[in-house]
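Dig into my protein:

:::
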Amino acid sequence: MPEFSTQPFFEVARRLEIRGETGWLAVLAPVTDPTAALDQLQTELQSILQKPARVIQLEPSTFEELSGDLHQPDDDAVILSSGTGLAQEKWRSLDVMRSALERSGPVILWLSPGDVANLTEHAPNIRSFIGGSIFLAGPDGGIMTETERQERLTELSQHFRLTGEEVVRKAEAKELPLEPEFVEWLVLMGRGDLV
């Protein structure tokens, strides 16, 4: 189940520091100004981990380019950005070659809400690398606060005229479309396991 924090990107970097600066996690990009938020995350990682943090775009990189970029060097922090979203075929390709993506430095997936559904469905092994370490970026670029989370849940409920309980029931029954808004909704409720 995803974790939520009321702290800024500083908390994401601290979690990596506590883990010994290894491992994988995912951050869902904010809808407004994702580029500025990505820059802020990169700065926080460099500051806390005291090592370089690079951003690598998953598109249009070939798998060979991506593997080479991840391993030269392989001990810095890398943010893999999906941009506006990756095709299902790209996720499947990444999943098949997942062992070549492992490295000694941390990997942060910078995802759109729709990418969580594709990650779960088409790259389950990479999803297992992440486990419950999924964070939501707030509108100010930091991690979404509890107040912001509640406001967004209210917006989604009003827009779709559904309650959170109804969304969970539909997801459990496999009747919920894997659209970005529903993926976001489940993650916001701490039910990323249903994606």
